[in-house]
Amino acid sequence: MIARSLKWTRHNLFGKPFDVLLSLTVIPGVLWMVYQAVSWALTAARWDIIPQSLRVLMIGVFPADQAWRAWIAIVIIAILLGAALGCVFAFKGRHAGALVPVWAGCAALAGIENVTNVLLIAVTIAAFAGGWAVASRFPPVRKALVPASFIGLIAIFAVMAPPGAGLWGGLLLSILLTLVTAVLSLPIGILLAFGRRSRFSGLRWICTGYIEVMRSVPLIMVVYWIWILIPVLTPQFNLADVVRGMIGFTLFYSAYVAEYVRSGLQAVPRGQTEAARSLGMSEFDINRSIVLPQAIRVVVPPLVGNVLDIFNMAPLVFIIGLTDFLRAGQMILANPQFGDRTYEVYSFLFLTYFLVGSLITFVARKLEAHLARGSR
Amino acid sequence: MNAIVEMKNLNKFYGSHHVLKNIDLSVERGEVVVVLGASGSGKSTLIRCVNGLEMYQNGSLLVDGYPMPVEEDRRLGGESELAAIRKGVGMVFQQFNLFPHKTVVENITIAPMRVRKKTRAEAEATALKLLDRVGLTEHAHKYPGQLSGGQQQRVAIARSLAMEPHLMLFDEPTSALDPEMIGEVLDVMRELARDGMTMMIVTHEMNFAREVADRIIYIDQGSILEVGKPDAFFDNPQNERARSFLARVLKH
Predict the structure, then answer these.
(1) What pLDDT, on a 0 to 100 scale, did the predictor assign at position A8?
(2) Nearest CA to A332 among A319, A349, A316, A352?
(3) CA A101/CA A111 separation, integer angstroms
(4) Which residues in chain B (49-108) have CB-CB distances under 8 A to chain A?
(5) Taking CB atoms and an 8 Å limit, are A274 and B93 in contact across chains?
(6) Gap between the terminal Cα atoms of chain A
(7) Which of A298, B10, B89, B235 could join B23 in a cystine, given CB atoms 3.0 to 4.6 angstroms apart?
(8) How far is Cα B92 from Cα B94, in angstroms, rounded to an integer?
(9) In Å, how far is B46's CA from the nearest CA of chain A?
(10) Cα separation of A219 and A247, whole Å?
(11) What is the pLDDT of residues A278-321, one digit of tens each?
(12) How far is the C-alpha of B90 from the C-alpha of B159, rounded, in Å?
């Protein structure tokens, strides 16, 4: 064993003179940084700020006595995400086992003295596992996923709206913004992609123009424009900032989805359309049943990457005065008594973003493998 | 009038390139017509005009009693005849063009269900009967990617037959196949011909052409140069270019 690792070390780390130089500088440097970080995290850092301000980080300034509404939203999201995972990644007994430490970790973070929260976290994780197991064991359920996510999002809006949509915030807002944008931009993007290929030149120009304009300007500007335009265009409705932000994100990302879908449509061989035409199928049926499924299959990996992009861009909603996850962290630090906890809070933000992002990347990789198996 | 396809003075251009020149051709019901010619001669384009996959610019084309609109009319949206024609005309492609995301049975049932509004049960019963006819019953629930080229092409034939066509078009159905699989596809086509199906076939299989054809059409540079019975055409071609074409393809 030791002989083997020595051999491995000599071969991989000290094989050539340049490798020796690289190893001698990089390895001690990395070790020193890890040592510094760990010793700070274990000795100097005062982590009590995280459990104390967890509610603000998770749901922003949403009133504490209305937190049950947020919990319902979180459980619905957990079911939907679990079901989405179950479509591509089979649920097994050992996964259920792996979720127990996840629950323990979340509970420790939230403070185990708060029994209600510990139970609610358990419910959330059980909902996630339930959605995952059902979608992976019963394939027919998967067909209902898209309508189910629409209904789920509407339910979340309905349950979260009464205290005032202006109060939404924290990680929940980031996730909701990502979900709404991802779910709504897909159908809009698909329609735009088909519109760009339409044989009616008017429609083609409108769609092309829309896509190109959106792709040529920054997201933050689109969001701001929509925010200031909507009150002018629809003065009678008085839409909340959150909704305006979601509309801005959706309009912007639809253009990107359209371009991904268009590249997928181009990848479908001409022969597929010709064969379907020769069978007498209508253009609508051909596009819906023959071309689109094959196109989507090709572009699922970039579309999932797009979801990650949306999530990582969500902090930009601070421009219209919303308190997303990152902003919530800054809000806590603005509190004079916590002014010296910058590194603790930002470490937590970093780790959480990293975990969510990795999860999305992981799902994307599973999805890719799943699709590769299906197409053969 | 018993002709199922009637072309009169049909012309087709790709830009300034004149692909089909003054084509006059009629195909009787129950007739098997084989179109021969060198590659690039326009033979595929000719049969692709019959179900409207290619547009023609002038002349006239009647298919199964319906007038096929010329390009200008189709661009203006006059496509109602097109759907009616395509329902009755099946086509088999060189590259099979099966739908890779659907199983064999789904490939065969989708058009009858969507176009002819059959129920799933009806369509599946027909599909299984057709699969039996092409000898692929045990592959009914596989995906096209799991089948060999010859099997895929037989599924493609079954898929066309499911629409109960009056006319079948074959566009080089064996050209993409490994040699050992050509026979199984030709057998299915032979049987179709025996059952009285009207067929227009573009192929490079000369022995097969001679065996099944009622009539051979020889086409070169977009013009029909010779029309004749198979024996007459193969043994004693009248046209100079047909003679040299046959000398080239029959050498091996």
Answers:
(1) 84
(2) A349
(3) 15
(4) 51-53, 83, 86-87, 89-91, 93, 95, 97-101
(5) yes
(6) 41
(7) B10
(8) 7
(9) 15
(10) 12
(11) 999 998 999 999 999 999 888 988 898 899 999 999 999 999 98
(12) 9
Tokens linked to A47: 């982590």
pLDDT tens profile B215-244: 999 999 999 999 999 999 999 999 999 999
Q: Which CB contacts under 8 angstroms, 24+ apart, belong to B230-235?
A: B230/B34, B234/B206, B234/B210
- Which two structure tokens, joined as six digits, stand for B161? 């037959």
Which residues in chain A have their CB less than 8 angstroms from residue B93's CB?
Answer: 271, 274-275
- Tokens at A78, concatenated: 């957990």
Has domain A165-376 been given CATH number 3.40.50.300?
A: no
Which residues 286-315 on chain A approach chain B with CB closer than 8 angstroms? 289-290, 293-294, 297
pLDDT at A161: 87
CA A189 to chain centre: 18
| Each residue's pLDDT tens digit, A11-47 | 888 878 888 888 888 999 999 999 999 999 888 888 8
Tell me the HSE value of B28 on the side-chain side, using a 13 A CA sphere.
Answer: 7
Q: Quick check: ipTM above 0.85?
A: yes
Q: Collapse the DSSP code of B38 into the 3-class scheme (helix H, G, I; strand E, B; otherwise coil) and give the result.
A: coil
Do A81 and A87 touch, CB atoms closer than 8 A? no
A267 touches chain B (CB under 8 A): no
For residues B168 and B92, is the Cβ–Cβ distance under 8 A? yes
The predicted-structure confidence for A323-344, as pLDDT tens digits, reads as follows 999 999 999 999 888 888 899 9
> What CA–CA distances, in Å, run from A267 to A273, A292, A293?
12, 11, 12
The DSSP line for A1-69 is: -HHHHHHHHHHHHSSSHHHHHHHHHHHHHHHHHHHHHHHIIIII--TTHHHHHHHHHHHTT--GGGHHH
- Which pTM value belongs to this model? 0.86
CA distances from B78 to A35, B12, B68, B85 (A): 76, 18, 10, 13
Contact B86 A297 (CB under 8 A): no
